[in-house]
Specification:
The chain has 171 residues and is mainly β. It is built from no helices and 13 strands.
């Protein structure tokens, strides 16, 4: 059963239709090689996709594992601590980070489809990023229009074209 975001879907039902009950058993575990805090997972197309906040590393990452075997399918390093659980919509995985960056990754291989940051300043060789994108990204299909990715940034609601990352008017 696919769980496209924490809470399973936009309704946040958090229950499994197949009720595994007492049959639930540990099949595999994975070690990223780093300490991390798991923010949540999505399960789709036979992959378990997790976002992590590395505690003793400069990197956060998004990882995908084969749901049956636990073999790592892909790993993508992120700029900023992973703030949200991953959200899957179509062929992309969406995530917010603690430096205000929002990512859309290809769900098949983890490649960055697009990323965005609202407030970045370059001073010589130094880059300063400001912002705090928080909570999961919600993605909605609109009839006759591209899907819309919605997330929070410092008390504002930001809307982007979920396919391209382009910021939408009013968001």
């Amino acid at each position: 059963q696919d769980w496209l975001r924490q809470g399973r879907d936009e309704s946040g039902g958090s229950d499994s239709a197949d009720n595994p009950g007492a049959d639930l058993d540990l099949r595999w575990s994975a070690n990223t090689g780093e300490q991390f805090h798991l923010n949540g997972a999505a399960v789709v197309d036979g992959k378990v996709i997790v976002a992590s906040r590395a505690l003793d590393s400069p990197y956060s990452m998004m990882l995908a594992y084969d749901a049956r075997t636990g073999a790592e399918a892909w790993r993508t390093y992120l700029d900023g601590d992973a703030e949200s659980s991953p959200t899957v919509h179509g062929d992309k995985v969406y995530l917010t980070t603690g430096v205000g960056r929002v990512y859309a990754l290809d769900a098949k291989n983890g490649a960055v489809a697009w990323e965005s940051i609202e407030d970045e300043h370059n001073k010589g060789e130094t880059v300063r990023r400001y912002g705090r994108a928080g909570g999961p990204v919600s993605v909605f299909d609109l009839e006759g229009k591209p899907p819309v990715a919605v997330y929070q940034e410092w008390g504002h609601v930001i809307c982007r074209n979920a396919d391209t990352g382009a910021k939408l008017p009013g968001g």
